[in-house]
Amino acid sequence: MSRRPQRSDRAPTSGVTLSPDEIAFVRGLVIYEDPEILALNKPAGLSSQGGRGQAHTLDELLWAFARPGKARPRLIHRLDRDTSGVILTARTKPAAGFLGKAMMGRRFAKTYRAIVTPGAPEPKAGAIDAPLRRDEQGREAYMRVCPPDHPDAETARSRYRTLAEAPGAALLELDPETGRMHQLRVHLASIGRPIAGDARYGGALVVGGHAVPRLMLHAAALRFPHPSGGEKRIEAPPPADMLGLIAALQLG
Q1: How large is the average pLDDT for residues 120-139?
Q2: What are the sequence ranges of the domains in the chain?
Q3: Which of 78, 79, 95, 146 lies at a CB distance of 3.0 to 4.6 Å from 150, suitable for a disulfide?
Q4: Is 80 labeled as catalytic in the residue annotation?
Q5: Which SS3 state, helix, strand or coil, does residue 1 take?
Q6: Does domain 109-252 have CATH number 3.30.2350.10?
Q7: CA distance 104 to 146
Q8: Which of 36, 102, 30 is CA-nearest to residue 64?
Q9: What is the CB-side half-sphere exposure of residue 243 using CA atoms within 13 A?
């Protein structure tokens, strides 16, 4: 993502200053909207919340959608800074409450795509059921696989399916059944198939002679109950850098 421009325009009641280019940038991320929800295709490199440095987070950029005298849309969930894909917000307080309860009740279904190395897992489809615990190291937080009886253990389960494979790499579809921090990244590393570009958990930075530009993890689809009734599914196309590596590795 290109460097952010200087800020000049103040979003109504926000206390956050956004430039016209920043407003245009975040509005260009919208992939679905209605009176109650707003979904965006978050690019890699943009923090959902609480980012460090001078750049605005997605949570702050959401002031671009605030109606006069109203609060900005509320994030319903987060994605890691280097993960791209579908992220959902609620435009109203009742919608936020409804969606928050639905997420707590595990009524959300998330589907991801990832490039892993050094090849397809064995078996090529299955589930990883491994508890995780948080490990603080200075200012950095990691997640670690741990025994079920560890005092800090949190249950974690992920399903995976191999979509394509080539020498040294594979393209996987992933469905996390729980929502722990870094869950997919740690689970795949635990079975010897770390996500390409994931330096934190042992992912390769070069695959098949091709440099990996960032964490190759994309939130491809989200299915959830809509606040107005029924079920909604929203999909986000993978970004160009991931599509380029898929093509270069002949995984597409």
Answers
A1: 96
A2: 1-105, 109-252
A3: 146
A4: yes
A5: coil
A6: yes
A7: 23
A8: 30
A9: 6
